[in-house]
Amino acid sequence: MMHNRLLTNERRSRLFGGSDGCPFYTNQPESTLHAFRDCRGIALLWSQLINPDATQVFFGSNLEQWVNLNFGRELRRGANHNWMDIFITAC
Questions:
Q1: How many other C-beta atoms lie within 10 A of the C-beta of residue 72?
Q2: Which residues, 6+ apart, have CB-to-CB distance to 73 below 8 Å?
Q3: pLDDT above 90 (res 84)
Q4: Which domain of life is it from (predicted)?
Q5: Are the beta carbons of 35 and 8 closer than 8 angstroms?
Q6: 8 A C-beta contact, residue 20 and residue 10
Q7: Beta bridge partner(s), residue 50
Q8: Are 31 and 8 in contact (CB under 8 A)?
Q9: Cβ neighbours, 10 Å, residue 13
Q10: What is the pLDDT of residue 22?
Q11: pLDDT, tens digit, 9 for 90 and up, residues 3-49
């Protein structure tokens, strides 16, 4: 993920042609960040998992910043689980 090498529709489109759209919300290109964070379905899940105070920084960073942020901070809502376990499982 960190090297942006996943074969998302955006990358596949650049390499081989075809649509770069998200298979669920076709009006948005499916980039790595879209697939793991910004797609409406996954964004709803993240919104339920992260601390509301972290929403702006969580959704406002680029891919490298986002990964580093999640490995470096506790962003979870509540104290039941380790954030690193949640993040790795969700991704």
A1: 10
A2: 54, 83
A3: no
A4: Eukaryota
A5: yes
A6: yes
A7: 76
A8: yes
A9: 15
A10: 87
A11: 677 788 788 888 899 888 888 876 888 999 999 999 998 999 999 99
Structure tokens at 50: 């992260």
Candidates 87, 22, 18; CA nearest to 49 is 87
Using the structure block, give the residue that is written with the tokens 């990964």. 67
Q: 8 with 30: CB under 8 angstroms?
A: yes
User: Which amino acid, residue 55?
Assistant: T
Sequence length of the chain is 91
CA distances from 34 to 21, 80, 82 (A): 10, 27, 24
Residue 30 one-letter amino acid: E
